[in-house]
Write a structure and sequence with these properties.
It contains five helices and no strands. The protein has about 130 residues and is mainly α. The chain has one domain (about 1-55, about 65-110): Helix Hairpins (Orthogonal Bundle). Helix 2 packs antiparallel against helix 3. It starts with a helix and ends with a helix. The model has no long low-confidence stretch (mean pLDDT about 85).
Length: about 130
């Protein structure tokens, strides 16, 4: 089982890196999420997939000799929350970049950035009131 998971992690990592090297920012964001999922799967796999032992303490306070390590699950849960927050931030950032520069192509952004005036929040508020 671990061999298949290692191959899956390698495949997801390759797909994530490939997508992150693409010039379109949406593909970059999807590649970032796939690479994050590959890292989560790697951490999960390192925590022993076939563990039949509970990560529990007995009512009398004794710990079972062979027990499952709950740390990988806690790390993955934290990584999922952080990955979701980064994805939401990236979506908002790319949405704003598309509004200002009219493109999401990373190679075309420098030319558009030189031609576009610097947006001012004050001007946007004035336009909304008018």
């Amino acid at each position: 089982m671990e061999t298949w998971m290692a191959l899956l992690v390698g495949g997801l990592s390759a797909v994530g890196v490939y997508l992150m090297l693409r010039p379109h920012l949406i593909q970059f964001l999807i590649g970032f999420l796939v690479l994050g999922n590959a890292a989560n799967l790697l951490i999960f796999t390192s925590g022993r997939l076939g563990s039949a032992f509970p990560p529990l303490v007995q009512p009398d306070g004794t710990v079972l000799a062979p027990y499952a390590n709950p740390l990988p699950q806690a790390l993955i849960l934290t990584a999922i929350v952080i990955g979701f927050a980064l994805a939401a931030f990236g979506i908002v950032l790319f949405f704003r970049a598309e509004q200002v520069l009219k493109t999401l192509n990373a190679e075309a952004m420098p030319e558009r950035l030189e031609a576009a005036p610097a947006p001012s929040p004050v001007d946007e508020v004035r336009e909304e009131r008018a």
